[in-house]
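Propose amino acids for all 988 sites.
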């Protein structure tokens, strides 16, 4: 039977508990005293442990029962026993603290730099609590004489393997081997004990870095491919920029290991994003893109039309289905195209990954995963890295774990790490989401492969992000034409002397007898032959197929030529029954026992009243557009800051129970029994990251309406990189259609410069339409215009037109980004209403809304023709009534600004032959639409009639913050618009 001391120290499983606190120390002291009195009173394992720990103690004190001693001797024995117990406890606690120090800070002294000259953490100091010399044992109360003393290990370490107790000397040796060699581990900041234990077991268990001969040969073969590919390109195109991966050739076997392990864990679709460095090698040896297709890109005679892209070869993406030869499983690989804006592709990859998971029903990310590659300077310096990582665990954005691989060149373009970041490591941003960070010396291929294996297992086990930091070097300059010795002379002197990782590893395997020199040379020759044969075939390549470089193909959506099946658009109107059904759903709560806010009850009653009268406001029109698409099997996703309720409290697509916390209801998901799902999700306070994410989501499926709404239109400013580099130019550069919709609240409401203008002039400036050419009109003119443009920009003034443009976005036979300048005050404007008749079958989007009042009935008598767009129409219409000028002034609304409605505009201008033409906008003259519409008006009227500007004067700020100034400017604009003598003989 166990003694009381044994019972206290043993867990339910019969295993000794760790000595972590004072209570356990007291138990240990009691047990030790009991053992000293009678060694057989404790468990056999503790008897052996105490014997080993007290090998130097007098044997008579250890073996004689205290009851046989005189009283004085018993007192002396107890005193000595107590002192020994206290020393034993102190030593064990010291060893535990020492182990913890290595687990927390061992990475600071790990040998990570393959050049042997730099400190990966930018600090050459050794942490005070790491034992780097015997003198430092004293800080723990230990001495050199304790090195051979045996210590029982706590359960928070696995360095003992199957041994419950080992000597201090062996403890230090194993800690150094685990934490201070070629792998540096950062994980102790993770606030989950299970995850920390998992990592400790993976790295601390003795003998983990053991590879079979077959595994070593496979690793060598992959290094051969990675290295010889770069050398082949250097021989054939020595004067071309290639942004090779030389200095980090281990990247290729690292990625292939991640993929191999992930495939073995059920993954069959991998979506990747990376900067330009190493892209060609990844395409060739990871994606397994045909080499001749890659070599074609170096042909200087290649025409732009043959390239199928307007971007350089090391920006291109690809989609490829192949068999993984390691386990003979089919796998789909997608490498996203991206510009030189480095980390900007990160959220795009995450969005596409989320979409593929969503449409597959992969709710845990078990079959679809993402891998992101980064440069060290960019990972530390680019804010989009944080914005993307911050999405990693949000319910509507998580991809259930991303593996981040950092190619840590230990330098930016020419910038040293100490000038490029303030944090110790470039990867420190990942700590905010408790992602483990594995630093590894890239010149130790086996260490790299093991780390990548663990990273893939971590992602599969915990569905969380993980970072692999490949500490390497850049063999050449920023590109192959750059001279790095100008700025890093000492570093590059060392690099020039550095043997390649392939040579080092080949020599190692040959010395171990794993393979012979002849076998190695044959492996090299085989791959060189493959490259030469592909090079020969590439010379015969006549036309490069566009489909070869699509990273997001849509099978069956287009014809094989990449053209739409026809340039026609299905009707966008729907039946009255559908409108009525959606309206009833929008004004009710479909879930029983659900308590809504009293204010929301009034809103629902108001919706019901509108539906009864067959009227819709802006919010209800949106509801009907979404609901009708859901009925047709189109998934709708609306994302952005506060979109569930709507920034202006106009949407309320998610209802919250007022009595039960976190109980919600989405009525739109209850409209039809077999409808498509509706996803509406509030995002993090990010524009760059979230817009990139939604762009990626829209790439996965053309038959989905994906919308991003800015809280205020001008917030698109912080997502400008996504707009400029991906959305406006994506089709031209990468032949990539995308139907993303941007909802940008816009309008001068007197609320100051920050939340007034969505900066439409910036979008219009990037339109690819020629302002000096009047297009040839055909029957398919409207749809052909849309097909030829790079994006569509509208400013709807009626809920019905908003309804139609959202539906048209899906019913078109192709996809273009759609920019909608949405209203603020019009959301509740009494005149901004539409009747069901404007949305029923047979109706469609109106690019221009003509005047239908008295002026239109007598067009020859009209003296002034005002063109405008958006909210300002209602102010002009009200002023016209107040001035009783309905016969003299016609007002025409441009609903679609780009592509410009040349044909309809000409019809309206010709209809009013005697009218003076005015462009009126509420924005300042240098902001808004005037610079865009003016040359197009002039071409339309063949320069025979001037178009006058009415609006605010030029300004650096989009709007005034002073209410009185705002009203004065507005009144001046209205006065000028209706003062028929305002322009007189002014020169055009």
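Proposal:
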């Amino acid at each position: 039977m166990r003694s009381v001391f044994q019972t206290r120290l043993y867990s339910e499983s019969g295993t000794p508990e760790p000595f972590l606190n004072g209570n356990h120390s007291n138990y240990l002291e009691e047990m030790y005293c009991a053992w000293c009195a009678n060694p057989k009173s404790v468990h056999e394992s503790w008897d052996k442990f105490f014997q080993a720990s007290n090998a130097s103690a007098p044997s008579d004190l250890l073996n004689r029962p205290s009851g046989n001693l005189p009283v004085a001797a018993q007192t002396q024995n107890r005193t000595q026993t107590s002192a020994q117990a206290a020393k034993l406890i102190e030593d064990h606690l010291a060893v535990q603290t020492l182990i913890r120090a290595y687990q927390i800070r061992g990475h600071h002294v790990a040998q990570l730099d393959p050049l042997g000259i730099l400190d990966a953490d930018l600090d050459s100091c050794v942490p005070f609590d790491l034992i780097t010399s015997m003198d430092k044992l004293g800080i723990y109360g230990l001495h050199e004489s304790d090195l051979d003393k045996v210590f029982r290990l706590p359960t928070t370490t696995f360095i003992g393997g199957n041994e419950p107790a080992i000597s201090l000397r062996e403890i230090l040796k194993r800690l150094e081997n685990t934490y201070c060699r070629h792998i540096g581990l950062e994980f102790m900041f993770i606030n989950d004990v299970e995850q920390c234990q998992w990592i400790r077991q993976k790295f601390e268990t003795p003998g983990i870095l053991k590879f079979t001969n077959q595994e070593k040969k496979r690793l060598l073969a992959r290094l051969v491919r990675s290295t010889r590919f770069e050398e082949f390109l250097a021989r054939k195109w020595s004067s071309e920029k290639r942004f090779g991966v030389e200095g980090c050739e281990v990247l290729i076997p690292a990625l292939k290991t991640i993929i191999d392990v992930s495939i073995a864990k059920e993954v069959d679709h991998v979506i990747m994003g990376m900067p330009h460095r190493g892209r060609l090698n990844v395409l060739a040896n990871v994606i397994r893109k045909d080499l001749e297709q890659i070599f074609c890109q170096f042909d200087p005679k290649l025409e732009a039309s043959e390239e199928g892209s307007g971007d350089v070869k090391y920006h291109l993406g690809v989609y490829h289905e192949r068999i993984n030869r390691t386990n003979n499983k089919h796998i789909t690989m997608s490498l996203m195209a991206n510009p030189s804006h480095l980390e900007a592709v990160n959220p795009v990859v995450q969005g596409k990954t989320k979409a593929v998971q969503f449409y597959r029903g992969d709710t845990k990310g078990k079959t679809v995963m993402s891998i992101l590659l980064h440069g060290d300077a960019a990972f530390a310096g680019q804010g989009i890295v944080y914005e993307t990582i911050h999405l990693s665990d949000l319910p509507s954005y998580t991809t259930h774990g991303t593996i981040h691989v950092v190619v840590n060149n230990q330098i930016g373009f020419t910038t040293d790490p100490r000038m490029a970041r303030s944090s110790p490591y470039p990867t420190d941003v990942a700590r905010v989401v408790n992602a483990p960070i594995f630093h590894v010396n890239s010149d130790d291929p086996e260490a790299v492969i093991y780390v990548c294996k663990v990273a893939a297992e971590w992602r599969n086990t915990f569905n969380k992000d993980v970072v692999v930091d490949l500490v390497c070097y850049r063999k050449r300059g920023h590109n192959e034409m750059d001279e790095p010795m100008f700025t890093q002379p000492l570093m590059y002197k060392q690099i020039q002397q550095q043997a390649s990782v392939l040579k080092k590893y080949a020599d190692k395997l040959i010395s171990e007898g794993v393979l012979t020199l002849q076998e190695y040379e044959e492996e090299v020759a085989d791959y060189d032959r493959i490259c030469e044969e592909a090079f020969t075939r590439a010379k015969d390549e006549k036309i490069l197929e566009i489909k070869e470089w699509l990273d997001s193909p849509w099978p069956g959506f287009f014809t094989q030529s990449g053209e739409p099946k026809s340039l026609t658009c299905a009707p966008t109107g729907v039946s009255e029954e559908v409108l009525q059904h959606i309206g009833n759903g929008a004004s009710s709560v479909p879930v029983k026992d659900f308590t809504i806010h009293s204010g929301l009850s009034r809103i629902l009653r108001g919706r019901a009243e509108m539906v009864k009268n067959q009227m819709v406001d802006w919010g209800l029109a949106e509801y009907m557009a979404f609901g009708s698409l859901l009925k047709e099997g189109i998934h709708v996703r609306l994302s952005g800051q506060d979109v569930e309720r709507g920034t202006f409290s106009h949407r309320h697509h998610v209802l919250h129970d007022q009595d039960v916390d976190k109980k919600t209801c989405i009525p739109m998901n209850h409209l039809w029994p077999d409808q498509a799902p509706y996803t509406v999700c509030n995002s993090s306070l990010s524009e760059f990251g979230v817009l990139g994410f939604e762009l990626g989501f829209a790439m996965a499926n053309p038959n989905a309406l994906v919308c991003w709404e800015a809280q205020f239109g001008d917030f698109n400013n912080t997502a400008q990189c996504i707009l400029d580099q991906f959305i406006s130019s994506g089709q031209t550069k990468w032949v990539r259609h995308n139907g993303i919709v941007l909802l940008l609240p816009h309008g001068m409401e007197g609320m100051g410069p920050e939340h007034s203008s969505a900066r439409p002039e910036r979008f219009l400036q990037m339109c690819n339409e020629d302002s000096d050419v009047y297009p040839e009109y055909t029957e398919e003119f409207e749809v052909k215009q849309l097909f030829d443009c790079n994006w569509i920009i509208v400013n709807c003034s009626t809920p019905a037109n908003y309804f139609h443009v959202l539906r048209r976005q899906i019913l078109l036979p192709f996809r273009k980004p759609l920019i909608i300048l949405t209203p603020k005050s019009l959301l509740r404007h009494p005149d901004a209403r539409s009747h069901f008749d404007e949305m029923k079958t047979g109706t469609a989007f109106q690019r221009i809304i003509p005047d239908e009042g008295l002026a239109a009935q007598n067009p020859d008598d009209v003296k002034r023709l005002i063109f405008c767009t958006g909210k300002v129409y209602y102010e002009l219409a009200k002023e016209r009534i107040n001035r009783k000028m309905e016969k003299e002034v016609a007002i025409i609304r441009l609903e679609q600004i780009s592509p410009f409605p040349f044909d309809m505009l000409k019809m309206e201008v010709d209809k009013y032959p005697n009218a003076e033409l005015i462009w009126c906008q509420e924005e300042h003259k240098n902001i808004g639409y005037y610079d865009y519409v003016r040359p197009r008006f002039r071409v339309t009227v063949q320069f025979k009639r001037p178009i006058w500007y009415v609006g605010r004067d030029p300004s650096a700020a989009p709007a005034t913050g002073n209410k009185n100034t705002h009203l004065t400017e507005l009144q001046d604009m209205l006065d000028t618009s209706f003062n028929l003598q305002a322009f007189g003989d002014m020169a055009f």
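Residues 71-105 form the longest helix (35 residues). Residues 4-176 form one domain.
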